[in-house]
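Practice problem 4.
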């Protein structure tokens, strides 16, 4: 299968190359009557020069473009027709006679001034939108260098929360559109050039990571080069997403890549280099402080620790594992074409070193987009994206990872011994983990992915008002991970060598057939009808194997390991989806607008009883600003009220929950171990779709020639029939519980976007602000009284009816026992409770502190988010910055739970210097006792911290060379810039970074920090050049 897919990809490339070459063809030489035409293109109303107007010789590929002063120069033949075209202006045609100078005035196009946005299966004018959507333009994407799609979206859309689940290069992200409506997944559907893509990071995760969110998976979307993106639209309410039916419950992100335009061929170069580092360290004990702590605990005596005055700082392990890392990116794009054929071809390379030694990310990417008009009625083309990525992971975002163990490793040990080998602490100091530098550099953990996204279309105008379009697309993703740990013996810790290999192959294809009718009657009635059929099919295969005791550390072949210690496995699955859908848009006099959609999906993930689901929606908009009674309001450009209601679905439950599955089991028969097969689950043939019903009320307001734009929305989203495992009695044995539709989650929220054009002219200044507030409540869990999520076997969150999803659950701290009498007078905690121990509240007043005294102690979901960005330009200089704000969310700091635990010989936080002693009656840090008989480290409010923060996310300063200099360089544009990311963060959180995210996109586990790879502060220097 893999070879066939690669051969297919090669064939697609072969087929597209001739078209590209034909698009580049130019006439061999000019005709004898050729002349040079010069002139200036200006706005017919304001007389301002228009920059970047396309000029094309009709019927040829010859063309040009205006400069910063609106001037142009083009070679043409007498009798040729020049076409002048510019976005938001009416195109003009001029026939060449004997003139040498042709000045052109273009009239603004009132209709095109209305921004065109991408919606499901088509485009529409912004003024005709009846649902709720947010747009991110190419200008916004070019403001700052970004390596991932998540960075391009962050902070730029109301109601959309983007968090990095790991700061590792290529690390996983979570994007939530209007809250969390499912216990299974809250990630939106991505549609890239018409191909639906689910950002399921599990397709690239090692099979050895466990099932409790212990290890962060990589990000499958890191195969997409953000430099190739032209625009991003985020569909938020059901009236906008219902056209995607069973896959639209969590919102839809539409990504359109750059395409060629008619005119002279252009070469664009985008390149940058940068450096990044850790923003701040976590304070832990130095050698002198650690030795004093060690001695006070009556550990085994160490001679070097006896005289503290002779000790210095010791080894700072954070300085050893964190580094100043470098990153660089280069993207070269060739675009252009003639009147019939346009093309855009690009290639890019990105390397991003991680701030933790040994970690890195690389991406090679390429794109070929072609559009060809066979005649006035028939068009065809393609979009082709290919990428190859490599991630050097070498660590995990958990308590076994390099970041976490660097905080715990003792400052008494050097990094290396005198002979160059990695060092271990003194024999008296017993640790169950190794030197973190050794872990980072010696462990090899490499994840490679290859992705091909291809979509081909054919479009024909059957009638002047009726268009047929068909598309065929495919998404092929091949991921492989190899993890090698060498054999070592360090102090009291030894390990056998081990090699683990996993392969994942994911394949998907989609075929669409669309009919679109656009008709205007009596200049008042505008109808736009869409009818479509779609078939999709996909599947996966994975294999994994592990061996121990390899003969050496260089020949990493799985067959060289000890076959007696092998572990092998694998699996596969397939799914299909067939869909029928339609949409009707009606507009009367550009005042009253109605949109209705319906989609019927049939999914192989559900049994015959509930295979099909129907998802309707309707929305209405009233544009008051076009009413006659508001005609005299000159300052009012737009006033529109919107209301919409719709139903969408969620099918992400795995492939075969409705039927019986079998799995391999081993059994002992005599002196042999045999493999057999047995049922692994209890089926539910009646399982059906999760359904989400959403109501949206919105208002759009434009004032003072749209220099002030306000967009406000209120929504209510009810997710019904949430898919949950049924509660089973113990008599069912080890069978997996059936999936049943019992849950219900409600999200209500308000969104506000304010865009202002503060000044225009030489000093141009614009501002964009967005605000989002959302509440979440679980209203039904069926027979499941609660859902408990664990991290490394420890319960950290609980989901119950009447509460938001995934709340922190534990005990409430009521201070520290200061005197022995305080212990005897308080509710009983433990027979070994003493003065200096944590005092917990007896919530049920039964006189005993036990599990019944646990309660909800924190909410990881923010109360609201707010972001503000500014763009300023003056005489070639440009300045932009974005502030990100997240407020009201809590973080469970699991790192403090260990570094303030006094457990074992590991290093501790500097906060323990203020620990309770009879001479220092602290009320913040308990007494030092290794066994923790009072369970002072149980999950409690002690480790819940405010995760609110305000961050200067991006700051960019650029300079564009003057046009006279550009002309001497034979260039069209040259801009240099310096940019900073994550420069300043204001927060009370004591960990590395308050942007913690979720565990592998799990909606039940958010903001649990147990040693996450921190987000870095970066400075970047770059240039944008056009030739």
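Answer key:
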């Amino acid at each position: 299968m893999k070879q066939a897919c690669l051969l297919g990809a090669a064939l697609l490339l072969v087929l597209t190359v001739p078209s590209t070459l034909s698009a580049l063809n130019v006439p061999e030489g000019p005709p004898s009557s050729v002349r040079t035409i010069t002139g200036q293109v200006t706005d017919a109303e304001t007389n301002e020069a228009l920059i970047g107007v396309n000029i094309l010789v009709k019927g040829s590929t010859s063309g040009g473009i205006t400069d910063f002063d609106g001037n142009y120069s083009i070679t043409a033949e007498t009798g040729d027709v020049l076409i002048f075209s510019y976005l938001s202006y009416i195109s003009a045609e001029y026939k060449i006679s004997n003139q040498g100078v042709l000045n052109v005035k273009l009239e603004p196009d009132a209709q095109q001034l209305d921004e065109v946005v991408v919606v499901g299966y088509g485009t529409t004018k912004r003024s005709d939108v009846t649902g709720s959507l947010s747009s991110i333009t190419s200008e916004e994407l070019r403001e700052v260098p970004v390596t991932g799609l998540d960075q391009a979206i962050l902070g730029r859309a109301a109601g959309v929360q983007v968090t990095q689940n790991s700061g590792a290069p290529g690390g996983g992200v979570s994007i939530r559109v209007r809250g969390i409506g499912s216990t299974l997944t809250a990630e939106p559907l991505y549609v890239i050039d018409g191909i639906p893509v689910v950002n399921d990071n599990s397709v690239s995760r090692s099979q050895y990571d466990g099932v409790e969110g212990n290890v962060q998976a990589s990000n499958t979307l890191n195969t997409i080069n953000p430099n190739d993106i032209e625009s991003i639209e985020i569909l938020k309410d059901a009236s906008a997403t219902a056209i995607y039916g069973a896959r639209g419950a969590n919102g839809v992100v539409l990504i359109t890549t750059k395409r060629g335009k008619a005119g002279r061929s252009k070469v664009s170069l985008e390149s940058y280099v940068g450096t990044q580092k850790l923003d701040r360290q976590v304070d832990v004990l130095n050698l002198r402080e650690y030795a004093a702590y060690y001695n006070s605990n009556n550990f085994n005596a160490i001679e070097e620790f006896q005289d503290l005055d002779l000790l210095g700082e010791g080894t700072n392990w954070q300085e050893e594992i964190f580094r100043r890392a470098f990153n660089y990116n280069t993207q070269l794009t060739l675009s252009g074409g003639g009147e019939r054929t346009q093309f855009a071809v690009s290639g890019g390379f990105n390397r991003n070193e991680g701030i933790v030694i040994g970690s890195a990310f690389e991406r090679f990417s390429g794109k070929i987009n072609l559009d060809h008009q066979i005649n006035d009625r028939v068009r065809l083309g393609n979009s082709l994206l290919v990428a190859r990525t490599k991630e050097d992971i070498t660590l995990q975002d958990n308590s076994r990872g390099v970041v976490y163990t660097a905080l715990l490793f003792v400052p008494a040990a050097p990094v290396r011994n005198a002979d160059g080998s990695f060092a271990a602490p003194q024999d008296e100091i017993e640790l169950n983990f190794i030197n973190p530098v050794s872990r980072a550099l010696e462990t090899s953990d490499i994840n490679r992915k290859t992705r091909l996204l291809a979509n081909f279309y054919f479009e024909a105008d059957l009638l002047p008002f009726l268009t047929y379009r068909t598309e065929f697309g495919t998404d092929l993703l091949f991921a492989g991970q190899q993890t090698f740990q060498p054999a070592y013996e360090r102090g009291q810790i030894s390990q056998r060598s081990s090699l683990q290999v996993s392969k994942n192959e994911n394949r998907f294809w989609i075929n669409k057939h669309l009919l679109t009718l656009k008709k205007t009657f009596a200049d008042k009635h505008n109808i736009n009808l869409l009818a479509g059929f779609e078939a999709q099919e996909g599947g996966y295969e994975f294999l994994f194997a592990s061996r121990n005791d390899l003969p050496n550390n260089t020949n990493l072949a799985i067959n060289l390991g000890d076959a007696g210690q092998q572990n092998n496995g694998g699996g596969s699955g397939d799914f299909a989806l067939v869909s029928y859908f339609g949409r009707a848009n009606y507009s009367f006099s550009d005042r009253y607008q109605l949109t209705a959609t319906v989609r019927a999906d049939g999914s192989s993930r559900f049994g015959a009883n509930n295979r099909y689901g129907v998802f309707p929606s309707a929305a209405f908009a009233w544009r008051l600003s076009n009413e006659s009674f508001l005609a005299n309001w000159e300052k009012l450009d737009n006033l529109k009220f919107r209301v919409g209601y719709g139903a969408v679905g969620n099918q992400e439950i795995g492939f075969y929950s409705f039927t019986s599955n079998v799995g391999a089991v081993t059994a002992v028969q005599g002196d042999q171990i045999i493999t057999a097969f047995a049922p692994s689950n209890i089926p539910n043939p009646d399982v059906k779709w999760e359904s989400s019903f959403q109501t949206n009320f919105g208002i759009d307001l434009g004032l003072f020639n749209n220099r002030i734009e306000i967009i406000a929305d209120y929504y209510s989203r009810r997710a019904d029939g949430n898919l949950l495992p049924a509660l089973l009695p113990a008599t069912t044995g080890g069978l997996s519980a059936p999936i049943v539709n019992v849950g219900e989650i409600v999200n209500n929220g308000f969104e506000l976007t304010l865009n202002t054009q503060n000044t225009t002219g030489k000093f141009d200044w614009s501002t964009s602000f967005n605000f989002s507030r959302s509440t979440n409540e679980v209203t039904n869990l069926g027979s499941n009284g609660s859902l408990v999520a664990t991290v490394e076997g420890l319960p950290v969150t609980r989901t119950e009816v009447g509460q938001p999803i995934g709340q922190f659950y534990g005990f409430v701290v009521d201070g520290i026992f200061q005197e022995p009498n305080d212990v005897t007078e308080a509710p009983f905690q433990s027979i070994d409770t003493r003065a200096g121990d944590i005092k917990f509240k007896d919530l049920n007043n039964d006189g005993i502190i036990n599990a019944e005294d646990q309660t909800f102690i924190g909410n990881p979901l923010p109360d609201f988010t707010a972001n503000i960005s500014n763009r300023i330009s003056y005489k070639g200089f440009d300045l932009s910055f974005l502030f990100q704000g997240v407020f009201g969310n809590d973080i469970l700091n699991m790192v403090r739970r260990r570094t303030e635990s006094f457990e074992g010989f590991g290093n501790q936080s500097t906060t323990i210097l203020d620990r309770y002693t009879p001479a220092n009656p602290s009320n913040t840090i308990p007494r030092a006792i290794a066994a923790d008989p009072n369970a002072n480290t149980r999950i409690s409010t002690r480790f819940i911290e405010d995760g609110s923060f305000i961050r200067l996310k991006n700051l960019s300063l650029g300079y564009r060379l003057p046009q006279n200099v550009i002309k001497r360089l034979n260039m069209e544009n040259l801009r240099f810039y310096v940019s900073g990311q994550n420069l300043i963060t204001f927060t009370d959180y004591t960990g590395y970074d308050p942007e913690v995210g979720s565990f592998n996109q799990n909606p039940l586990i958010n903001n649990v920090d147990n040693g996450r790879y921190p987000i870095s502060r970066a400075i970047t220097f770059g240039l944008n050049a056009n030739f």
